[in-house]
Design goal:
With 267 residues, this protein is α/β, with parallel strands linked by helices. Helices cover 41% and strands 24% of the residues. It is globular and about 55 Å long.
C-alpha cells in the first residue's frame, strides 16, 4: 500500500510539474490571445530601421511599437527584402508596411497609404574632395561624366531613371554596397533617401564621405496598408494624428534625424 501511495503521489507531482513547466515556457504568455500586428520592415536602412543589439531599432520601429500599443495588438516584425514588401502585404503575410516607404503613383494603385508622417526626398552622398562638383543638385548628377549609384527599386532609382542620367548608373541591393562602391571610386555619387544618406554621411565622415544637402526631390513617407483593411488604415491615421497634435511626432523624427529641421523644416 505504501508503495502504491508513493507511486500515486509521485505521478501527481510529475504531472503538476509538467503543466507548470509548459505554462512558464509560453513565450507569448498571457498576451498570446491578442490580435497580432504584423509589420513588414526592411531593417537595412538606418536610422529608419536597422538591427541593434539583436533587436530592430530606428524611427519606424518606434512608430510600430506605438501603433501596436495604440491598437492593443501584439507587435510582430516581419523582416523582408525591400522589393518583397508590397507582394507580402498583398498576399496577407503582413498587415502594414512601416519601412520608410515613399508615396508614389505606382504604389498607390496597389495599396492604400496612411496620411504622410514626414516630408523627405533624395540627396546625394559623395566624396568630400568632389563636393564642389555637385552644388547644383540634379543637373550635376545627370552629367555624362558622372557615375551614379542607387538602390534597386527605390525612389532614388526611379528619380535617376525618369531624368535619364547620361552617365553610367549602377544599381545595388542595399545602401552598404552603394557606399562601398563610392569608397572604391566605382561611382561618383550615391543617390538615396535623405535620412539614410545623412546617417551614412555621419558614419563614414572619417573616410571622406559627405552628403550634399541639396534636395533632389520632395517626397512624403507613409505606411502601406491593404485596401480592404480600412479598420487598420483608420487606426493608423488616428494614431498619427495623436502624435502630431501632441508634438511628439516632430520629437521622434528629430531624435533619429537631428538635422531634419535644417533641410525640411515643415510637414
Amino acid at each position: 500500500m505504501k508503495k502504491a501511495l508513493f507511486l500515486f503521489i509521485g505521478c501527481c507531482l510529475l504531472l503538476t510539474g509538467c503543466v507548470m513547466h509548459h505554462t512558464n515556457n509560453n513565450p507569448a504568455g498571457p498576451d498570446s490571445q491578442q490580435v497580432v500586428l504584423r509589420v513588414g520592415i526592411s531593417p537595412d536602412a538606418p536610422p529608419m530601421a536597422f538591427h541593434e543589439h539583436g533587436h530592430i531599432a530606428g524611427l519606424e520601429a518606434d512608430f510600430a511599437k506605438g501603433l501596436a500599443q495604440y491598437t492593443k495588438r501584439r507587435l510582430v516584425f516581419v523582416e523582408l527584402p525591400w522589393p518583397e514588401q508590397i507582394p507580402a502585404l498583398l498576399a496577407g503575410k503582413t498587415d502594414i508596411i512601416m519601412s520608410a516607404m515613399t508615396i508614389t503613383r505606382a504604389r498607390d494603385y496597389r495599396i492604400s497609404f496612411s496620411k504622410p508622417y514626414m516630408v523627405t526626398g533624395q540627396i546625394a552622398l559623395v566624396r568630400l574632395r568632389d563636393i564642389s562638383k555637385f552644388g547644383d543638385g540634379l543637373t550635376d548628377l545627370l552629367s555624362p561624366i558622372v557615375k551614379v549609384g542607387t538602390v534597386d527599386a527605390t525612389t532614388g532609382d526611379l528619380l535617376i531613371l525618369q531624368h535619364k542620367a547620361k552617365g553610367a548608373v549602377l544599381h545595388f541591393k542595399d545602401a552598404g554596397h552603394g557606399v562601398q562602391a563610392l569608397l572604391d571610386r566605382r561611382i561618383d555619387a550615391f543617390v538615396y533617401d535623405l535620412s539614410m544618406n545623412l546617417y551614412l554621411g555621419a558614419k563614414y565622415a572619417d573616410k571622406g564621405i559627405v552628403p550634399v544637402t541639396v534636395p533632389l526631390s520632395r517626397e512624403h513617407l507613409a505606411w502601406g496598408i491593404r485596401r480592404d483593411d480600412q479598420k487598420l488604415l483608420q487606426a493608423a491615421n488616428a494614431y498619427l494624428k495623436n502624435l502630431r497634435d501632441s508634438g511628439k511626432l516632430q520629437q521622434m523624427i528629430v531624435h533619429w534625424i537631428p538635422f531634419y529641421r535644417s533641410v525640411y523644416n515643415s510637414q
